[in-house]
Amino acid sequence: MDLTHRFTVPTSVEETWAHFQDIASVAECFPGATVTAVEGDTFQGSCKVKLGPIALVYTGSGTFLEKDEQEHRFVVEAKGKDKRGNGTAGATVTLTMADAAAGGGATDVQVVTDLAITGKPAQFGRGVMQDVSDKLLGQFVSCLETRLAGGAPEPSGESGPTSAPGEQSDAAAPAVDAPPVSVGPAPAAQREAPAAPHTERDDSLDLGATVLPILARTYWKQGVAVLGVLALVIWWLASRD
Amino acid sequence: MIPAQFDYLAPTSVEEALAALAEHGDEAKILAGGQSLLPVLRMRLNAPEFVIDLGRIDALRGVRDDGDAIVIGAMTQHSVVGSDPLVAEHAALISKAVEHLADAQIRHRGTFGGALAHADPAGDLGAPALALGAEFVIAGTGGTRTVPADDFFVDLFETAIGEDEILTEVRIPKHTGWGAHYEKFVRVAHQWPIVAVAATVRVDGGTIAEARIGLTNMGSTPLRARAVEEALAGQPATEDAVRSAAAKAADGANPPSDLNGDADYRRHLATVLTRRAVLAAAGG
Known about the structure:
The complex is a heterodimer of chains A (about 240) and B (about 280).
Chain A (H helix, E strand, L loop, with lengths): L1 E8 L3 H7 L3 H5 L5 E7 L2 E10 L2 E15 L4 E10 L5 E12 L7 E11 L8 H25 L15 H7 L14 H6 L12 E2 L5 H29 L1
Parallel strand pairs in A: 3-8
Antiparallel strand pairs in A: 1-7, 2-3, 3-4, 4-5, 5-6, 6-7
Chain B lengths: L6 E3 L4 H11 L3 E4 L5 H6 L7 E4 L9 E4 L2 E5 L4 H5 L2 H6 L1 H8 L4 H6 L2 H7 L7 H6 L3 E6 L2 E6 H4 E3 L2 E2 L6 E8 L5 E7 L9 E10 L2 E10 L6 E2 L1 H7 L6 H8 L16 H21 L1
Parallel strand pairs in B: 1-3, 2-3
Antiparallel strand pairs in B: 4-5, 5-10, 6-7, 6-10, 8-9, 11-12, 12-13, 13-14
């Protein structure tokens, strides 16, 4: 399914574009994501999805499929597999930047995400996955927004890690509902430590109730049936040693 | 399917349980009655390394009178709550809701605190607890704190209970003499409601003096239908008056759309079920 989000940041298109030359800074914006390795246009990492009592860890990789400097458009594709083999998750994110309609050197950013989740986590019907996707993408987009709004005005690479973007993030605060970047590494610093907004939240994606009621509704009979089995398992575990 | 291997811990006091939780943190899950957690483990949608079973902590069980409130221990089974005379007398809305909660087997296993801490937006206890202004007593290593119902339900499956905390008991202000009804609309008996309405009213000489209405599954948390409560106050307990007030039941709600019904359908259901619930509560 495709989901579209739009927001405006108070920096020029060139500055905004420069901000995202580092793939890790995009990837780290996925809730609960950790980037473990970056090589050229590809990254490896994991994404933890937490949903009430559910906790899934997708590990996988992502890559820049397209980077069009003229059109200021890039496409990132990420694919992951659940650690326990329960399913896969994939996302293709297309991010386009253009001069803001309102002018003033600001930039309109559009993020179109095609998200596909298969396996058990997806066996809950469209309505649920819509909620799940909205939640995931809402966090992803507000993270992007925060990074862009809080970024240093100089192009990436020229500003040292000591520059403090506090004022810029304050100026942008009304348009941003995610926490502003408080650590404030400049883009150059983010190459090494791209998790400034990320570290502020314990944010494995919390899918909340979207899936669980359906899950429980679907499986409560089996749940009851398994109780007996589980009691045996517990007894066995407890009495093993 | 069989759950992934985990270590089973069975503390006998809240302090022990908190210590185990502090030690194992993210790797541990609290097991209350297991009616929601076990299916998740079984499907391996979660694989905690430790399961901390609160079942051996006797202090967490039972219902007691505490002056202007009744106190229900978090590990009290639904079946016990549902048949408790104190609950029936002072918080009839809870008794009525428990009657409709899942099936008899689940009611004998599942616990009052477990269901509330689980915070399923379609769970049957959230709306009554909210309507009655319940207070949640939460223990942590630094002591206990009390959270009002308005602040307890945060989001889908998310409550004010911290990662290192345990819900120990729920205090429910006495609503002695209030009529109560839980109107639940389900597609299949014993399942989660598509929408349900918890209503409790104090009727004085044919007039509704006060009303408290809670909505189940009309958003990501249980909701109070405050517009209806205000519209009902001082009205006669007649069908026309109640119908007119109940029309506001979905005001401000943002119900989900799913395979059982879309948001508009749920909004409509809320008004119909509110009328039925209030009339039944006022009549009984």
